[in-house]
Structure formats: structure tokens, C-alpha cells
Amino acid sequence: MAAQPAMFAPRAKRIIFVFMQGGPSHVDTFDLKPELVSRDGQSIDFTGVRFGDFGQVTRQKLMKPLWRFTRHGQTGKAVSELFPHIAGYVDDLCFLHGVHTEGVAHGPSTLFLHTGATTLVRPSIGSWILYGLGTENQSLPGFVSLQPSDANGGPRNYSNAFLPAICQGTSIGRSFQSASEMTIDHIRNTELTPEQTERRYSLTQQMNRTQAERSNHADDEMEAVIRNYELAWRMQAQAPEILDLSGESAATAQRYGIGEKETDEFGKQCLLARRLSESGVRFVQVNYSDQSPNPRWDQHSNMPQHAIHAKATDKPVAGLLEDLKQRGLLEDTIVWWGGEFGRTPFSQGSDGRDHNPRGFTVFLAGGGFKPGFSWGATDEIGHLAVEGKVHMHDLHATLLHQLGINHEQLTFEHAGRNFRPTDVYGRVVPEILQG
After folding, report:
1. What's the whole-number mean pLDDT along residues 77-103?
2. pLDDT tens figures, 124-182
3. Average pLDDT, rounded, for the chain
4. At CA 16, angle to CA 5 and CA 255, rounded to 5?
5. Residue 218 confidence class, pLDDT cut points 50, 70, 90
């Protein structure tokens, strides 16, 4: 997995994907709709996706944002009071307001977000990036998912699928664990001397290579085992230090909200993402994921719980942006924030919102994306993407483009045909890129 040259000059070297699982409500966060405010409580016709029968027209009651919007930065971008810290960085952010996707439930939409497919087992976007570019650090995995969920796709969200097994993402921690347990188990063997450990490693690899040589055909999984043992051996020297956050300054910890009740957990994830990216990991996914029994942002009722999740993530994400800027890393690092879909402009029950894959917001920072810029729009009430529409395939294509990869030329032969990250779809969105 040595570093591979890009297909053309890249603007970015790596991606940090901040995954807000469950579907944050765009109309309550970054997509201000004055008409939704003025028409609060009105019942109008909607064509069903999840509610009623698919395609059936039903009457639903509009519900205004539950939080006040104010304008920030030189751009005057409207942001809800849910995100006061991120609001301070709007001049660094590129907002996409016309995003739309496939799937109407968490499982299919989460899989589509990661792999570009709702049913067929396909590689994660992180695996495609590792396959196309290799890794910058031979002593660390090239693709890491921090505290991923076991639900809604689970390991398929960081799977290599049919790509070489070495492209599989490495999970660190689990969604149900504390961030303090976010480590790689048994990275060092404290019961053996270094000499004993090396002898055991050498013997194991000798047996692995003997088995691989006896195979009558190329054994991708056996080769991956050998390479993974080699990587694990090298990781013993570097990974423990990177995973240990205790050496960071008090000012850095404070920036991420570490040590504060509401932000400590996610702050540790975001700080570790910076440390991994700074050390050469190509794709780091930071998961604010499942909280039994539902994904965290999934408020079909009790929308005020959005405030809990915003409080937990706002300061850490802002801290990540500031830290990357100060270290000169934001120029060639893409920060991608978003969920698998948005939420409806009408109420579900008295104070909830349903899933909405037809129009929602994500934001990007760094990596050659236009700062202080908004592209696309939903309709006047925030239901449908109507202008500057960006399908999830388009977003994937554009992210790859910034890494120097042509999404139509990155292919892998499987089951008799060439596959690519965006299937047979997707286009680069030039309007959101710096010249």
C-alpha cells in the first residue's frame, strides 16, 4: 500500500469525514427558510416517501425551526443557535444545500452514503481512496473509522467488499464504548520480551508465507493477512503514541471541549482524527453514531433533543477546524460534515420530523473547496432540492477529484465487469471548487 501518484495534481491529500448519523434537520441548523417560519402550522399536500404509501399525496402540517437563526462572518451566513461555535467558521466553510440521495431508511441511506449502493455489497469510499492512492505512512492504516456503529450497515460501511482485502478500513473503538476505550487492543504484548515477540512474529509470518506459496491460485485474503501482520508489527512503534491524547496541551484539549461533560467524548474523537490525519492516514471517519435504540439525530419525536447532539458536537468540530488551520493542514485536508439524509419541514406527531432524502445540507472545508460559499438550494420550505442539486454520487466524484482521482477512471474488475466508486453515475461539481 505504498503511496501512489494521483491521476492529476490534487488539491487535497486526505479526508476527515464527520458523520452525523441519524439525519440532522437542515431546516433547524444551516438552511434558513423564512417561508417555513411564516407558514408554521399550515397543512399542505406532500407526496409520500416514508409517510403514507410511496407516491401517495397526503396533507402534513408545516413546523417552523425550533431555534433562532442569526447571520455570521463576512459572508453573513445564517446559522441556527444550535451551532454557535461552528458559526464562527462560516467563512471557511462551503455549504451544499441541494444534496439528495437514495434510500429512505437509515440502513439503506447510510450504506449509500458510504458505498454508493443501498443493497449490492460495494466498497466504502474510504477503501476506494486507499486503493487509488495508497497510504502516506507505512506504519499506520490508510483508512480508519473511529467508534463506528454495528448497526445500519455496520462493518459494510468501512468494508473493502471486492477490492483487495488490504483496503479494508480499520475500526478503532465502538459506538457503545467510551472514547477512553478508543484504542487498538493488544497493540503491544507486555507479557513477552521484545526478542520473544520478534521470534513469534517471524515464525507466524514464515508459516503464512508457506501457506500462500502452496496455494494453487492467488489468495488475496492470505496476502492481506501477511501484509496486516507486517503493518501491525510496524504499528507497535508509532500507533500507541498517536492514540495517546495525554501529551496534548491543556489549550488544545480545551479547544476540543475535552474535559467538559457534554463534549468530552466527541472531542476526543475529533482530536484523534487530527492526530491520525497529521500522521498520514488518508481517510478518517469520525462517527457520532447510534445511541440505542435509535441513531442520535433521529428525532421522529422530541425535536428538542437536537440541542443535546448539537451541544456534544459543535465545539469539537469547531476545534478541529481551528486546529487544522493553525497547523497549516486545512489547505490539503478536506473536512466533510453531514448525515445520511435530512428531515422533513413538516411535523411528525407534535414535535418530530421524518426522514428526508430529497433535499438536505452538508458542509465541506479545506482541500480546495470555496470558503465562505453556499451552493444549491431546497425549495421555499426546505423539502426538495431544486437548485444546484448535488446527488451523493456527485459528492463522491467531487471529493475524489480534489484528491487527484478521476472517478470514471478508478476501476476494479469484478464479476466480469469494471466497477468504479460512483457506479455509472456522478459528476464533479466545479461550481464549489476554487480556481
Report:
1. 98
2. 999 999 999 999 988 899 999 999 999 999 999 999 999 998 899 999 999 988 998 89
3. 93
4. 135
5. low
Alpha helices for 327-386 (secondary structure H): none
Give CA angle at 185 (182, 190), nearest 5°: 130
**C-beta separation of 289 from 174 below 8 A:** no
Res 199 pLDDT > 90: no
Residue-wise burial string across 91-109, b where 16 or more C-beta atoms lie within 10 A, e elsewhere: ebbbbbbbbbbbbbebbbb
Cα 378 from Cα 217, distance rounded (Å)? 53
Q: Which residues pair with 360 in a beta bridge?
A: 99
Helix, strand, coil % in the chain, rounded to nearest 5: 35, 20, 45
**C-alpha cell at position 246:** 495525554
Q: How confident is the model at residue 287 (pLDDT cuts 50, 70, 90)?
A: very high
Rounded CA-CA distance 311/305 in Å is 10
Per-residue pLDDT of 321-367, as tens digits, reads 999 999 999 999 999 999 999 999 999 988 999 999 999 999 999 99
Count of CB atoms within 10 A of residue 228's CB? 16
Distance separating alpha carbons of residues 121 and 115, to the nearest angstrom: 8
Q: What is the mean pLDDT of residues 385-414?
A: 98
Strands 385-387 and 294-295: unpaired
Residue 5 neighbours by CB under 8 Å, 6+ apart: none
DSSP annotation of 369 reads: B
CA dist list (Å): 325 to 92, 243, 321: 10, 21, 6
Classify residue 431 by its DSSP letter.
G
Domains (range + CATH), the chain = 14-190+249-432 (3.40.720.10)
Rounded Cα distance between 381 and 384, Å, is 8
**Count of alpha carbons within 13 angstroms of residue 10, beta-carbon side:** 26
- Assigned C-alpha cell, 277: 490525519
Please choose, from the candidates 128, 92, 133, the residue with its C-alpha nearest in 3D space to the C-alpha of residue 280.
133
Q: Strand 360-365 and strand 93-100: pairing?
A: antiparallel
- Run of H or E including 391: strand 390-391
